[in-house]
Write a structure and sequence with these properties.
two-stranded antiparallel sheet
């Protein structure tokens, strides 16, 4: 019995060591994707991990793109990773703490009290990527991930050492009317500072998920336990975290490297009723807010819109998706012109 317990303890220890000490294992995405779980210091809910996903390293390539997902999200966009890899960049994606691969039983999904809680995850991921031989890194982020990256760069300034920032429909402002944004949200944010666990919004509409999922009206498949069809109830502490970060970044002019801000060309209100416009508009954020605050992020910002794009532009219908990829890779090639360091495309 003691021998069995000893072997069981050793097996558990080895499993923890493999996933927590720098060793990659095959990812759920297949297609040669790998992941490693990284143990982080405990927080107010207990144990915390973040998860780094990657494609195998390209030979003699020392440049990488690190992708950061949005709210109620995780990395599942294989076409994005494959395309970036095919254009000559090592590809990584980070599932933040309490999201996707990093969500643990003791945790409230997607919850934080301050977006700066994620900075350690980004610091750690960037350190690993550089240790693996990538001298230059471009950050790519979607929606709430775009707000987190912006807030991170404001705090870290030049210390972040990133070559460029690519924002896909970043969550730089709320998509509500004047009364909600100027009266209700600041009030909820204030309450959230003192009562962070107070639930202030229940489950949301399923229309956006229906526009994406192949099982409904879309063309994609993903884990709906990690990217939930009706979202997840939001707490006052999370509202406070978003509100404070948006106030910080809306002051503008802090990103020192080149930035590309992308959004759809128009927004459309989401309701419980289905509309075909959901397939060709942003039904989550106001594209005018994205463009307005996006262009103020730094001195080297390029803003562009994608005709017929949806909120996550790389999940748009084929024509808009192709325009998105063309815009992304044209911009990445422009970094080569500016810095003389990024490679030109060698996609077949």
């Amino acid at each position: 019995m003691n021998s069995f317990r000893s072997h069981l303890f050793l097996l558990i220890f080895l499993c923890c060591f493999v996933t927590g000490s720098g060793q990659y294992v095959p990812d759920v995405l297949g297609g040669h994707y790998l992941y490693r779980s990284i143990q982080m210091p405990n927080d107010y809910e207990g144990k915390v991990i973040c998860t780094l996903v990657k494609k195998p390293q390209l030979p003699d390539v020392h440049r990488a793109v690190l992708y950061l997902h949005g709210y109620n999200d995780y990395f599942f966009q294989k076409q994005l990773g494959d395309s970036i890899n095919a254009h000559g960049y090592n590809f990584y994606a980070l599932d933040l703490r309490k999201y996707g691969r990093s969500l643990l039983p003791n945790q409230t999904a997607f919850f934080c009290k301050d977006l700066q809680e994620y900075f350690a995850d980004l610091d750690t991921a960037l350190a690993v990527i550089r240790k693996e031989g990538n001298d230059e890194v471009v950050l790519m982020a979607h929606s709430t991930g775009g707000l987190i990256v912006s807030d991170y760069l404001k705090a870290r300034k030049a210390e972040a050492h990133v070559a460029g920032v690519l924002l896909n429909s970043p969550f730089l402002d709320w998509n509500f009317g004047w009364f909600m944004e100027n009266i209700v949200l600041p009030t909820v944010s204030f309450i959230g500072r003192f009562f962070p666990n107070l639930t202030v919004q229940g489950y949301g509409n399923a229309s956006y998920a229906h526009s994406l999922l192949k099982a409904f009206k879309g063309e994609w498949e993903y884990n709906t336990a990690w990217k939930m069809i009706n979202g997840f109830p939001k707490k006052a502490g999370w509202i406070h975290a978003i509100h404070e970060a948006q106030k910080r970044i809306q002051k503008g002019n802090f990103v020192q490297c080149p930035v590309l801000v992308l959004s759809s060309d128009r927004s459309f209100p989401e309701t419980a009723e289905w509309h075909e416009a959901y397939h060709e508009t942003d039904i989550v954020l106001d594209v005018h807010d994205i463009q307005h605050y996006g262009k103020q992020l730094g001195k080297h910002v390029t803003c562009d819109t994608i005709t017929g794009g949806i909120h996550d532009l790389i999940l748009s219908r084929p024509a808009a998706r192709e325009q998105t990829y063309c815009t992304i890779f044209d911009w990445l090639r422009s970094l080569d012109t500016v810095s003389g360091t990024f490679p030109t495309s060698h996609q077949q």
